Amino acid sequence: MQRFEGRVALVTAGAQGIGAAVARRIASEGGSVIVTDLQEDKSAAVAAEIGERAIAVRVDVTSRADIDAAVAAGVERFGRLDLLVNNAGACIVTSLPEETTVEEWHRQLDLTLVGAAQCIQAVLPELVKTRGNVVTISSVNGLAAFGNIEYSAAKAGQIAMTQNFAARYGSSGVRFNVVAPGTIRTPNWDNQPDALERLSKLYPLQRVGESEDIAAAVAFLGSDDAAWITGHTLPVEGGVLTGPAPLNLTPTGPFSNDH
Questions:
Q1: Smallest Cα–Cα separation from 244: which of 202, 216, 205, 197?
Q2: 8-236: which CATH topology?
């Protein structure tokens, strides 16, 4: 299935993990990809793997000049832009919530929320031309309390921002949606080999997610298969938002519905 034949996507934080999986998935369905990241060697490797339908551009999403340059390079190379995948972001605040400084709040919001907003602003003129769309990678942290308050606030802000952009630009034919992942096996966990195994027990599906799980959801929302979907958040989270996995305790005595 070639849902992205003749279309061009810009993927932020595309050097590894979710971003790299998204770039590969879009290319596998016929699309061209602008792979952006601060990690130039890794993003260049992803683009080289894809081949002539990909370029790598160094981008810091807190720099509007960087973003504009990536959009210009992509349009010059491929002639158009149809999809922005807003993937850049990180949990960068490690202080206790009651000790977080204003500067730490600004660093978190500037990267995860304001960076995503700047990317949208930069691509909008091109997306209006192509009646394209934006898929932002938020998190279950933006939907429920999983800790990391500053990161969670930024991720919730992405969801509210998406809804408002969707309402404002729907008449221009531009769609905006969100994918909200649960725990995903990415290089961020490389130094915590036992953590993913422990976390998997919290999920009804009894595993953490893979980057390809998120890439599949992005490919759906970014394609014409989702042509009448805008302003929505798709949780891709192994069921964790439904509640924790049951403990499968066996009753040891009589019980009734009153218990």
A1: 202
A2: Rossmann fold (3.40.50)
